[in-house]
């Protein structure tokens, strides 16, 4: 991978930039965590920001719930902060009891990324994660680009390369509230559809049990659109983690970057967001731990927003039996890429 001089330069203070299109849609991004901090839709009723975010960069630095952040090196959890790869055992940074969550204590969401803006509708962020960073092997080069299209899509492209074999699982942790980040309406009133016959039950610590469970006759069946709140906390699997915080495995052939794998609908039906991706799974997180988070226009509380994080399954490095499609091992010197698209309809 090649990086421009601007991208290699270490920028010490975070920058905020805007992407716009001819329809009047506007996306705000920051180099702190390569984060998506606003998504303003020009609705007939007025402008509506449908993304949760901090009121300023100082608060963005303080918050610990990954508002809009690019997550890495490894999204989600690694059990016991340990894994074995090529016969060598690695111990990585733990930041959720003994476990590694979203890359460890000093993960990518806390870094100042390099940034260039080649056009009013596109931004490219870059980061170099040195060998041994948080205990992970190899130097990892990462580029994350955001593009706002003229048909109101936000397209996130990820590209990365490691100098050694290493687990890599990049995702975006934006919380959406399609009623508006200033709204009193919660995730419970949103409609959700997911093209997944299978989900991963977890322990109380959010770790996968190893089982891939059929969603049929469970409260995790989102194959037909339903209100998120309809079956909320109606089973022990959800109760263990305070709501939905579980991975769904997309049905075979759906993760081609073109087909819609998930659709989120606003409470009043005036906004829809359709997701397509090349990643094989998605974490549905209903904002269970949003406790007194300083937001742009109000204090966010539990269930103020929902995160739909396309990724490899959690702790996949410790579950090789799941197969190569799901383990997320970046082989040395190979360039990898993935893409997730968010289509806004209003």
Give the termini distance in whole angstroms.
38 Å
Number of strands: 29
What's the helix count?
Answer: 4
- Specify Rg, calculated over alpha carbons: 19 Å
- How can the largest sheet be summarized? 9 strands, antiparallel
How are the strands of the biggest sheet laid out side by side?
10-11-12-13-29-23-22-17-20
Helix content: under 10%
Which class best fits the helix and strand makeup?
A: mainly beta
Average of pLDDT = 96
Query: How much of the polypeptide forms β-strand, as a percent range?
Result: 35-45%
Shape: globular
Low-confidence stretches: 1-11
Query: For this entry, what is the oligomeric state of its chains?
Result: single chain
Describe the protein's architecture and organization.
With 346 residues, this protein is mostly beta strands. 5% of the residues lie in helices and 38% in strands. The strands form eight sheets. Strands 10-11-12-13-29-23-22-17-20 form a nine-stranded antiparallel beta sheet. Strands 16-27-24-21-18-19 form a six-stranded antiparallel beta sheet, with no helix packed on it. Mean pLDDT is 96; it is low at 1-11.
What is the gist of this entry?
By secondary structure, the protein is mainly beta. The protein contains four helices and 29 strands. A hairpin with a 4-residue loop joins strand 25 and strand 26 (299-300).
């Amino acid at each position: 991978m090649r990086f421009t001089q601007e991208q290699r330069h270490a920028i010490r203070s975070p920058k905020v930039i805007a992407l716009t299109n001819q329809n009047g849609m506007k996306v705000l991004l920051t180099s702190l965590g390569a984060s998506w901090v606003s998504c303003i839709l020009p609705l007939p009723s007025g402008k509506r920001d449908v993304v949760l975010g901090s009121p300023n960069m100082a608060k963005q630095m303080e918050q610990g719930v990954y508002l809009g952040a690019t997550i890495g090196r490894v999204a989600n959890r690694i059990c016991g902060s340990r894994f074995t790869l090529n016969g060598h055992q690695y111990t990585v940074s733990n930041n959720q009891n003994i476990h590694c969550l979203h890359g460890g204590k000093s993960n990518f969401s806390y870094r100042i990324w390099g940034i260039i803006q080649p056009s009013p509708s596109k931004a490219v962020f870059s980061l170099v994660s040195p060998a041994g960073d948080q205990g992970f092997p190899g130097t990892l080069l990462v580029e994350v680009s955001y593009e706002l299209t003229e048909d109101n899509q936000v397209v996130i492209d990820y590209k990365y390369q490691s100098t050694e074999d290493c687990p890599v699982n990049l995702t975006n942790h934006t919380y959406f509230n399609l009623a508006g980040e200033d709204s009193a309406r919660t995730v419970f009133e949103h409609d959700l559809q997911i093209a997944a016959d299978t989900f991963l039950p977890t322990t109380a610590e959010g770790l996968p049990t190893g089982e891939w469970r059929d969603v049929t006759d469970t409260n995790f069946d989102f194959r037909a659109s339903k209100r998120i709140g309809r079956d909320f906390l109606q089973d022990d699997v959800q109760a263990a983690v305070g709501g939905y915080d579980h991975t769904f495995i997309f049905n075979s052939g759906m993760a081609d970057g073109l087909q819609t794998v998930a659709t989120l609908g606003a409470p009043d039906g005036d906004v829809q967001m359709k997701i397509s991706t090349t990643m094989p799974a998605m974490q549905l997180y209903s904002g269970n731990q949003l406790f007194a988070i300083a937001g742009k226009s109000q204090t966010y509380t539990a269930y103020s927003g929902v995160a739909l994080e396309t990724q490899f399954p959690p702790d996949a490095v410790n579950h090789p039996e799941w197969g190569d499609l799901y383990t997320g091992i970046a082989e040395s010197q190979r360039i990898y890429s993935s893409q997730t698209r968010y289509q806004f309809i209003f």
